[in-house]
Specification:
Blueprint (H helix, E strand, L loop, with lengths): L1 H15 L8 H12 L9 H12 L9 H12 L9 H12 L9 H12 L9 H11 L1
């Protein structure tokens, strides 16, 4: 009986970790593309779709209109510097992901925890925002 309960608990945790629980449809589609190889074409937001295509299909980051997001994409995809990113949290996240620096300079608690999960293998459980936590669970499993 205990084995059955443990197995059901494990399966429910696995199901919970999927992209399907992300409330924002664009973020859900982005998560599905990153974790399951689905198309980026289902993403309505132009910048997020362009970022997805750059990361997943090797396309250019040049179609991203937001300067910070374009610089972040170029850093991740093309090895360019994170120094051109104006937003402090995004620059710190970029530096952690691309250059192995600390996530500790990210002021937003959820983004810092997300960064630590991606970069340092820490738990997603400290993320308060349920959609971000679900994305974290999906991409770090």
């Amino acid at each position: 009986m205990r084995a059955i309960i443990a197995m059901l608990l494990m399966l429910s945790t696995y199901a919970h970790a999927g992209c399907g629980n992300i409330s924002d449809s664009d973020q859900r589609a982005y998560c599905e593309a990153k974790t399951n190889g689905q198309s980026c074409g289902n993403i309505n937001d132009n910048d997020l779709r362009a970022s997805c295509k750059a990361e997943m299909n090797g396309q250019s980051c040049g179609n991203i209109s937001d300067n910070d997001q374009r610089a972040y994409c170029n850093a991740k995809v093309n090895g360019q510097s994170c120094g051109n990113i104006r937003d402090n949290d995004l620059r710190a996240s970029c530096s952690a992901e691309v250059n192995g620096q600390s996530c500790g300079n990210i002021s937003d608690n959820d983004q810092r925890a997300f960064c630590n999960a991606k970069v340092n293998g820490q738990s997603c459980g400290n993320i308060q925002d349920s959609s971000l936590r679900n994305e974290c669970d999906a991409i770090t499993r």
